[in-house]
Amino acid sequence: xxxxxxxxxxxxxxxxxxxxxxxxxxxxxxxxxxxxxxxxxxxxxxxxxxxxxxxxxxxxxxxxxxxxxxxxxxxxxxxxxxxxxxxxxxxxxxxxxxxxxxxxxxxxxxxxxxxxxxxxxxxxxxxxxxxxxxxxxxxxxxxxxxxxxxxxxxxxxxxxxxxxxxxxxxxxxxxxxxxxxxxxxx
Length: 186
What we know:
Strand order of the largest sheet: 1-10-9-4-3-2
Distance between the termini: 55 Å
CATH class of the largest domain: Mainly Beta
Number of helices: 3
Shape: globular
Helix content: 10-25%
């Protein structure tokens, strides 16, 4: 037996499904799902190297590609940068670490501590004044926020891959996890 559905009911249900689909898309774009994997060995960065807000220090982490990667279970080295984002906060939340490889074409990004030194065309692409340090890809001018690696402008399809600062002691910052995607696309 086939149930009959009136036009109004069909229209209401169609609009509801359309609205829910659009809502899911907006939510998915605003809060990307990031999964992290533990590094085989944590990286320690001296706390004294990041004494002031906006200071950055480069580090290298060893990792292993995922079984689903093009080259599965291979050891890799990932260069990262850790930045102090808040003064007076010597907890893991006061620091952010990202992979310095641009997700667009794999070029290494530069840390620009003085956004006033950005080229005019990059400032124009960003579209608003930038007062905090940024990461800039020298290949195609993709620009990323220093506090979380999110994309500001340029052809990069997403923000920088992230590391997680897992703890801070009196002398060092421990970086113990890396975003899963970098272990697939490396």
